[in-house]
Design goal:
Length: 441
């Protein structure tokens, strides 16, 4: 088996932080029958991944793996985060292997139309996009048409082995198995991050597909398609590149915006300006612009009467001779408290929702006497809690990423971002314990 999505390089993303852990993961993969792994560190990720030098860390892991006598071949790929705006401009692509396959991930709450636009534009650019862990996008997976529409647009589908086995809820697992049976799933990968959560194990999912779909489908997903990927051969999809008016419209709008931005930037450069910077306040001092009438004075004896100067020039001068403009720049404290407030709002929303779910479980436990029905109802709520937790993680991480950017833009230190991140994880743990106790009592 070949694992095409695995975070196994130490110290570059949210995968293992030490090479010893990577080696343990490799040993686990080897025991599981995985013979090739494409290491896919996050690229362009809102959390700032990858960190460190990916190539160096990858090379070090290969050496360590060889020294440990592990029979798993390692290749360097990537899991590339792509926003809708990225596909309308030049961007650095990190193909999965030396070829056209891009393993792409998106923001958690991406809507289907945006996802389809990205897939379409990537196809137009000549890539073969693989939508990583399609089940992790709540809006996408709740819509029964999503997978078929992504395939129609030319996207390939990857799901995570543990999700197929129920790690993100039974409902989703059932939905994924249906997609597997319909031949809509192209890859099943581990998306391993460590030894416990999403481990580098594929055999359980392989057997599950073999049993609940067919042997042919299992072999295609776990072996044939990954082999084609590594050879750079195209995996056939029912896709036809249709020229969709909405996509073209989006492209045209993006082009117009780019042109306007360029025109504006060039226009601004024509006006020289002198910048004086004080703490948190940058003052832009206007410099006198010689209007064409004044230039003409040197060669013209007769001064030009004011009424003959074109109105546009008078207006430009009027604007320029207005009082100095000051632009306020935010202090470090104001940036930090702005994000702290948002985090507190998210925390309270999360707790309220969790409270409601837990109360629902408590009520079901005391009112539903049929054991099967009771378990079914409780499972559905647990599915919803798991999804909510993933959504919450993504929202918090995206917010902290924005905060880091805001602080870096003003050249402030970003240590508070890590403190908020740690605080969030602590709160999550404590909240979980509290509610577990509530449910058990
Ligand atoms: Fe991943």
């Amino acid at each position: 088996m070949i694992d095409v999505h695995c975070h196994i390089i130490p110290g570059v993303d949210d995968g293992p932080d030490q090479i010893e852990k990577s080696i343990e993961m490799l040993k686990m993969a080897e025991r599981d029958g995985i013979r090739k792994i494409i290491a896919t560190p996050h690229r362009n990720h809102p959390m700032g991944y990858p960190k460190g030098n990916v190539q160096e860390q990858f090379d070090a892991l290969k050496v360590a793996s060889r020294n440990a006598g592990i029979d798993v071949d390692l290749y360097l790929g990537a899991e590339q985060y792509i926003g809708k705006e990225d596909v309308f401009r030049e961007f650095e692509a990190f193909p999965l292997f030396d070829g056209r396959y891009l393993l792409v991930e998106f923001k958690t709450h991406i809507d289907l139309e945006s996802l389809l636009t990205i897939v379409y534009e990537l196809r137009v650019k000549g890539f073969w996009p693989i939508v990583a862990h399609v089940e992790m996008y709540p809006t996408i997976i709740r819509n029964d048409e999503s997978i078929a529409r992504i395939k129609e647009e030319g996207g390939l589908i990857q799901i995570t082995a543990s999700s197929l086995m129920g790690a993100v809820g039974k409902k989703i697992a059932t939905k994924l198995m249906n997609a597997v049976r319909k031949g809509q799933v192209d890859f099943i990968a581990s998306d391993a991050h460590g030894l416990n959560m999403r481990p580098p194990v594929l055999s359980t999912a392989y057997k599950h597909v073999q049993k609940n779909a067919t042997m042919e489908i299992a072999n295609r997903i776990f072996s044939d398609n990954p082999s084609k990927l590594m050879l750079g051969e195209e995996i056939l999809t029912p896709k036809t590149l249709r020229k969709k008016s909405s996509h073209r419209r989006a492209y045209i709008i993006a082009s117009i915006v780019t042109v306007l931005v360029l025109v504006f930037a060039l226009g601004m450069k024509m006006i020289p300006e002198k910048e004086v910077q004080s703490q948190n306040v940058r003052v832009t001092e206007p410099v006198k612009v010689i209007k064409s009438a004044e230039i003409n004075e040197s060669v013209q004896e007769e001064p030009i009467p004011v009424e003959s100067i074109p109105t546009e020039l008078i207006e430009v001068e009027d604007i320029i001779s207005k009082p100095m403009q000051t632009v306020e720049y935010p202090s470090k404290g104001s940036i930090e408290s702005k994000y702290e407030e948002q985090l507190l709002v998210m925390k309270s929303e999360y707790e309220t929702a969790l409270d409601a779910y837990v109360n629902e479980i408590i009520e079901i436990k005391s009112t539903v006497s049929d054991q099967d029905l009771r378990n079914q109802k409780i499972d559905a709520i647990i599915d919803a809690i798991i999804l909510m937790e993933q959504e919450s993680d993504n929202m918090v991480y995206a917010l902290l990423y924005e905060m880091q950017n805001d602080l870096e833009k003003e050249k402030y230190s970003v240590e508070q971002v890590q403190k908020f991140r740690d605080g969030y994880n602590d709160i999550k743990e404590t909240t979980k314990m509290t509610y577990m106790e509530k449910i058990q009592n």
